[in-house]
Automatic annotation (TrEMBL):
<dbReference type="InterPro" id="IPR002543">
    <property type="entry name" value="FtsK_dom"/>
</dbReference>
<protein>
    <recommendedName>
        <fullName>FtsK domain-containing protein</fullName>
    </recommendedName>
</protein>
<feature type="compositionally biased region" description="Basic and acidic residues">
    <location>
        <begin position="28"/>
        <end position="38"/>
    </location>
</feature>
<dbReference type="InterPro" id="IPR027417">
    <property type="entry name" value="P-loop_NTPase"/>
</dbReference>
<feature type="compositionally biased region" description="Acidic residues">
    <location>
        <begin position="1"/>
        <end position="10"/>
    </location>
</feature>
<feature type="region of interest" description="Disordered">
    <location>
        <begin position="1"/>
        <end position="45"/>
    </location>
</feature>
<feature type="domain" description="FtsK">
    <location>
        <begin position="342"/>
        <end position="468"/>
    </location>
</feature>
<dbReference type="GO" id="GO:0003677">
    <property type="term" value="F:DNA binding"/>
</dbReference>
<dbReference type="Pfam" id="PF01580">
    <property type="entry name" value="FtsK_SpoIIIE"/>
</dbReference>
<dbReference type="GO" id="GO:0005524">
    <property type="term" value="F:ATP binding"/>
</dbReference>
């Protein structure tokens, strides 16, 4: 029986050979990476992503080497300086010691000859010691002869040696250049010339440098660029910023960190026992120390975390690329309690901006062309999408154009002082009356807004125009004098008394200085302040002294100019603890057609109505306001009485008298007394006799005509006319001037 044969045991799994191609680490090892941005990829994995990452890295390295080579050309190691040094070294070798000695002998001999000639001239004209001077001159002549002989001998010897060396050095170059020219014409000669220059550059590669030149070379070799670009590495940019802050601005740093973004760089700075005021005051110098940064673009943010901590933003060419379009919101999809989440803008990093507007008043300030209307429309887009807000718009400066297509989703758009006064009176009545409902409705200390009991938001555009219209006033029939509309006073009272009732306001204007808003200083006390591009005085009045040094630099923003947007719709926001740092935001944008579509869509979905409990507080109804606004919008503003009632009555007086060419003031007053006896009857005026009563009535009529025409920008002055054909001229109120006011004349409006 044969002995059993032991079969070999199978090798363990972990000892089996791995099949496949082995890639060594050397294949993936590249040149040193001081910037530290080389992507790490497992050498055993060759994936498309890995190849793309390596290709991008190699491309960056190539661009860096090209930038370094270009920067080196401005130093002593540049190509042109090396060529000149190499040529000088070649020429020095060709001349050699013999040539240098011959040149020195020739110079010495020439100097001796000149001295001998001067000695001979002095001896020829000398009166004293003539023999002694002649003997010295003869000795110099003999010495000069000897020097000339030595110089001539040295020169002949040097010429032979230099000619041999020059032939050895320059001969092959000349022969090669001539051969290249004969072989390939001009291009061959140029190629040979480039080779000659390259050889001269190689000979001049070594040089002695000073400490300043050595420092510049070290910066170039370290990769420190000479100009800022968004694509540079954070490490290199950090070196530039650190040098600018410490050496130029003399700031003591505790720590510095640079975060790169697609829009630019964000620099986090921790200072040592000092505040960022020194940096804020030296932003212009910082821009000068960072070549390539746009003028007026660097922004400083004083952090709320610590006084010695700030953030510096260095934006690139397109810093607002992360700001999205205005988000779409369906009709009645937002509630007032969640309106602080409705995005209306974003910062450079894309962080959203959503204003707290629940029982909160807002002030928007921006110079002309600063994008204030874009910001206002973004706010209105969020407001008109709510299910529990009544939106009242007032625009006495641009006829409601600032609201855009969203005016369709607003309950009222008042474009005349009378409409604005009625709307504000209605809002005031409800705002003051609602606190009496807090306890019966179980709301506590504030009005609880809901779809059944909505809030009211008054949006005012062009506030300075409203102030001017309010100051013009109207002619009061009861008091018989010009009365102010007091629209700004009603807005101030609304801001003070009605916030708890959720009757709030949003004010938009070109500034808060006295020449723009008169004495309406209450604007700066509103809890939410939005500052677009405006004057430095506006920033100081709204935020107070010292805020400019903390980075609230709305005065550095540039309004739009022509087709250049610049910083249009960019603003700083101060709104409690949520927005207490000077971070610039840009409003989200939507086209006019899109805003019009949203406005009509929300209007078709239905606008919320006032609750019955609140409606009882005012004799004015929301329906009356909406009807007047709709009539004005449909007729294009013609619903406003462009011709005052008094002027219409005077026109009836002229018609009753068969349209004479003119009337005296007393005749017009008499006609009005018959047409409107309650107002213009002679008995309604004081006087001891009839003459005094007529004089008082005429004076009142003259003042009334001036008062009712001033708000519409017209006037009716006295002029000469003929009361009848052939009669002399008298001075009074002419029919032709009246027809211009009523629109019957060629210049009527």
């Amino acid at each position: 029986m044969p002995a059993p044969v032991d079969e070999p045991e199978p090798e363990p799994e972990h000892r089996r050979a791995v099949e496949g191609t082995l890639y060594t680490a050397d294949e993936w090892e590249l040149r040193p990476d001081p910037e530290g941005d080389r992507p790490w990829i497992n050498p055993a994995l060759r994936t498309p992503e890995g190849r793309k990452a390596r290709a991008r890295y190699i491309g960056r390295q190539a661009r860096r080497r090209a930038r370094k080579a270009a920067a080196r050309q401005r130093t002593v190691h540049g190509f042109v300086p090396r060529v000149f040094r190499g040529e000088r070294r070649m020429r020095a070798w060709v001349v050699g010691v013999e040539g240098a000695k011959a040149r020195a002998d020739v110079n010495l001999a020439l100097a001796t000859v000149k001295e001998a000639d001067r000695a001979a001239r002095r001896a020829g004209i000398a009166l004293r010691h003539r023999d002694k001077k002649r003997a010295g001159a003869q000795a110099l002549q003999l010495e000069a002869g000897k020097q000339l002989v030595v110089a001539q001998s040295a020169k002949k010897h040097a010429q032979k040696v230099v000619a041999i060396r020059a032939g050895v050095t320059y001969g092959p170059l000349v022969v090669a250049d001539a051969a290249a020219y004969g072989f390939a014409d001009v291009w061959g000669f140029l190629g040979a010339l480039v080779l000659n220059l390259a050889g001269a550059s190689w000979l001049g590669r070594d040089v002695e440098v000073t400490e300043e030149e050595m420092e510049k070379l070290e910066q170039i070799e370290a990769g420190v660029p000479q100009e800022v670009s968004v694509g540079m590495t954070p490490r290199m940019f950090e070196q530039m910023v650190r040098q600018a802050l410490t050496e130029d601005l003399k700031v003591t740093l505790s720590a510095l960190r640079v975060d790169p973004h697609a829009w630019g760089f964000e620099i986090h700075v921790w200072l040592e026992r000092m505040s960022p005021e020194k940096i804020s005051a030296g932003l212009d110098l910082l821009e000068a120390c960072l070549p390539g940064v746009r003028t007026g673009s660097i922004l400083l943010q004083q952090s709320a975390q610590s006084r010695n901590y700030c953030v510096i933003r260095v934006p690139g060419d397109n810093p607002w690329q992360a700001v999205p379009e205005l988000p779409y919101r369906a009709a009645q999809s937002v509630s007032t309690k969640d309106i602080h989440k409705a995005q209306i803008g974003a910062d450079m990093a894309g962080r959203p901006l959503a204003l707290p507007m629940c029982r909160t008043n807002v002030n928007v300030v921006g110079a002309s062309r600063s994008g204030k209307s874009t910001i206002l429309r973004a706010i209105l887009d969020a407001l008109t999408a709510t299910e529990d807000q009544i939106i009242i718009g007032i625009d006495l400066g641009s006829a409601g154009s600032g609201f855009g297509g969203l005016r369709h989703a607003m309950h009222v758009v008042a474009t005349t002082p009378a409409q604005a006064r009625a709307a504000l009176q209605w809002a005031l009545d409800i705002g003051k009356g609602r606190p009496s409902l807090f306890t019966p409705l179980g709301m506590g200390e504030n009005w609880v807004t809901s779809r059944e009991r909505p809030g009211i938001t008054v949006v005012v555009d062009e506030f300075p125009a409203l102030v001017r219209e309010s100051r013009k006033g109207y002619y009061g029939e009861e008091v018989k004098r010009q009365v102010s509309w007091d629209l700004d006073g009603m807005l101030a009272e609304l801001a003070i008394t009605s916030a708890k009732s959720d009757v709030t306001e949003i004010i938009a204007g070109q500034g808060v200085t006295k020449e723009k808003v008169k004495d309406n200083t209450w604007l700066v006390e509103l809890p939410v302040q939005v500052l677009a591009a405006c004057d430095k005085d506006d920033v100081v009045q709204i935020l107070g002294d010292g805020m400019l040094a903390q980075g609230w630099r709305a005065d550095r923003l540039t309004p739009a100019m022509g087709d250049q947007l610049n910083d249009a719709s960019v603003a700083y926001v101060m709104a409690g603890s949520a927005y207490c740092e000077p971070i610039p935001y840009r409003a989200c944008y939507a086209t006019d057609d899109e805003l019009l579509r949203r406005g009509k869509e929300r209007a078709a979905a239905g606008l919320v109505g006032i609750d019955a409990e609140s409606a009882k507080f005012s004799r004015i109804t929301l329906k009356q306001l909406m009807d007047a606004s709709a009539e004005t919008f449909v007729t294009g503003g013609e619903a406003q009485d462009t011709v005052p009632q008094l002027i219409t009555s005077i026109r009836q007086v002229f018609q009753a008298l068969s349209d004479p060419s003119g009337l005296q003031l007393e005749e017009i007053a008499a006609g009005l007394g018959q047409l409107d006896p309650d107002r213009w009857d002679l008995a309604a005026f004081d006087g001891d006799d009839t003459a005094e009563q007529e004089a008082a009535r005429a004076a009142a009529l003259k003042a009334a005509i001036k008062a009712v025409l001033a708000p519409v920008g017209k006037s009716w002055t006295t002029d000469c006319y003929r009361p009848r054909p052939g009669a002399g001229t008298v001075k009074g109120y002419c029919l032709r001037g009246l027809k211009k006011i009523t629109g019957e004349g060629p210049d009527g409006s």
